[in-house]
Design goal:
This is Peptide deformylase. 20% of the residues lie in helices and 29% in strands. It is of the alpha+beta class.
Length: 184
């Protein structure tokens, strides 16, 4: 397989909605998924959307380490044409946390996200997948699905004073992230 180049903020592929996958079993889709998994392994991130590797399709690969998700690991997953719905009360139950992104290396920001979401998608085999996610798992899904809609996390920041380079924020006041934010 191959390690793909990651698009950075400002590239047009990140600014537009991705196209639906019409045939999950197509050889080019299978190759894309395998290359995305290799790329994500190489990057050390937890999630990657196809637009981040210059492919405008609705495909996400991710995993959730137990240490980041209240002890509950989520093994490697592929999502094709995912759709999310919040399980909490609209904007009332949003929770802010530090996020980073492979397309914005070295930057981090405090992003409000729903605490719980319902997921509907196709898996890597083209089979329907439904799940509910909470905590960090829900955050990863929302972050990656935003990429499929042409949204980068800085677009969700309510307070730009909580956005900047990880190193600079750690050197600043108590609002800084306690550890470097892991890229997604």
């Amino acid at each position: 397989m191959a390690i793909l180049k990651i698009a950075r903020m400002g590239h047009p592929v990140l600014a537009r909605p991705a196209d639906p996958v019409t045939d999950p079993s197509a050889p080019d889709v299978r190759r894309l998924i395998a290359d995305m998994v290799d790329t994500l392994h190489d990057s050390g991130g937890v999630g990657l959307a196809a637009p981040q590797v210059h492919v405008p399709l609705r495909v996400v690969v991710y995993h959730v380490p137990a240490a980041r998700n209240a002890g509950l690991a989520v093994p490697w997953r592929t999502l094709i044409n995912p759709v999310l719905a919040p399980l909490d009360d609209a904007d009332a139950d949003l929770e802010e946390a530090w996020e980073a992104c492979l397309s914005l290396p070295g930057l981090t920001g405090r992003v409000p996200r729903h605490r719980a979401v319902r997921l509907r998608a196709l898996d890597a085999e083209g089979q329907p997948l439904e799940d509910e996610a909470t905590g960090f798992h829900a955050r990863v899904l929302q972050h990656e699905c935003d990429h499929l809609d042409g949204i980068l996390y800085p677009m969700r920041l309510p307070d730009l004073t909580a956005f900047g380079f990880v190193e600079a924020l750690r050197a600043g006041p108590a609002a800084a992230p306690p550890e470097p934010a892991r890229a997604r």
